[in-house]
Amino acid sequence: MCGAFIGDEPFAVLLGDDIMVSDTPALSQLIDVYNQHATETVGVQPVDPADVSKYGIIQTGRQGGHVYQVEDLIEKPAVEKAPSHIAVMGRYILTPAIFKTLKTIGRGAGNEIQLTDALREVCRTRSIYARELEGSRFDIGDKFGCFKAGTEIGLLREEMRPKLLAYLEEVLKRESEEIVR
User: Where is the Nucleotidyl transferase domain (predicted)?
Assistant: First the structure.
């Protein structure tokens, strides 16, 4: 079904639970790498080693600046089995060939068909690249991450900043008074 819309063109996948804020949009950063290598490209950022089991993790080969050649990808590995602490951040430039691979892989982590597992298969036959994304990432699939995203993005908006700062000051004052009691 998707192939009818995409045809033979590369396409972007942006997972909705990851919000990126940066001067150069994350997708533009990935497109630059794709334009150099014409192959699957994933957005990555380092994560705390204790959090690697929440993400697809890459094993890197050659590196040039913010770009890595990917040697392997593992979906949600245990910390002791993780090849790095560089995690896929829900931003991808893919080619239509990924659909064929997705049809052939079995269920992976969480008993789901995992895009990371399909990319792992692709990686065995041709190069995949990763771009360490510049900017801030917010995981809005996490309650606190969602709160942080709303707050930080609100503070970036000129019309929201004064109201949001006044509100946060009010909350902090009220909480301080509660602690004193």
Answer: 5-142
Q: For 31-67, what is each residue's pLDDT tens digit?
A: 999 999 999 999 999 999 999 998 999 998 877 789 9
Range of the domain at 53: 2-139
77 and 131 together in one domain: yes
How many structural domains is the chain composed of? 2
Examine the domain organization and report whether 94 and 163 are in the same domain: no
- CA distances to 56, 138, 161 from 44, rounded to whole Å, are 9, 13, 29
Is the pTM higher than 0.85? no
Q: Is 6 in the same domain as 83?
A: yes
Q: What are the Cα distances from residue 33, in Å, to 88, 148, 152?
A: 15, 29, 28
